[in-house]
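Researcher: I'd like a candidate sequence for this fold, 185 residues long. If you have to choose between options at a position, lean toward the conservative one.
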């Protein structure tokens, strides 16, 4: 029996199975079915011609094969199924194995590049790195434009202090006002 078209389309779209793989699987199934028919094995499927005929009351003939022959044919069928399964799995898994191998080589190359960069950085002292970074991002504190030399007139100039008017006894304005009786209530 062939695989229904709906199932094929579903397997191709959802599982990503190659259509050629499905064709080879159908061919293997057909070969197994032919072999089973030639050996006289019964099938679960009913032929349309057989279903149209009325059922007979005759009993099935006992098989003439000996148990040893049955065991040999079962082993051969098992071996054929195993071979078909191995072929189907190998066609599906081979591209995946190739992708994994490619990814492993990329990861190794990235690790080697990272190791080489780390090795190159080992010889560089951290003080020189901070100096390099400081050239590009200095704050106003360390900037030469904001430094003031104490020897020029700008550094010596300062705001004038206000002269203190101390007419009272204590020099504290609030207390002096209280003593003078100038309370504004």
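Model: Candidate sequence:
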């Amino acid at each position: 029996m062939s695989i229904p078209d709906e199932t094929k389309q579903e397997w191709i779209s959802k599982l990503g199975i190659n259509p050629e793989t499905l064709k080879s699987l159908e061919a293997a199934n057909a070969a197994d079915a032919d072999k089973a028919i030639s050996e006289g094995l019964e099938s679960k499927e009913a032929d349309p011609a057989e279903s149209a005929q009325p059922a007979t009351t005759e009993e099935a003939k006992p098989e003439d094969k000996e148990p040893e022959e049955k065991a040999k044919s079962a082993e051969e069928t098992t071996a054929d199924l195993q071979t078909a399964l191995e072929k189907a799995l190998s066609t599906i898994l081979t591209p995946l194995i190739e992708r994994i191998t490619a990814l492993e080589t990329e990861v190794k190359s990235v690790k080697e590049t990272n190791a080489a960069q780390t090795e190159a950085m080992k010889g560089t002292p951290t003080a020189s790195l901070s100096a390099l970074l400081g050239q590009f991002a200095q704050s106003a504190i360390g900037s030469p434009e904001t430094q003031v030399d104490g020897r020029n007139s700008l550094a010596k100039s300062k705001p004038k202090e206000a002269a203190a008017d101390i007419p009272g006894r204590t020099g504290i304005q609030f207390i002096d006002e209280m003593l003078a009786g100038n309370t504004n209530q």
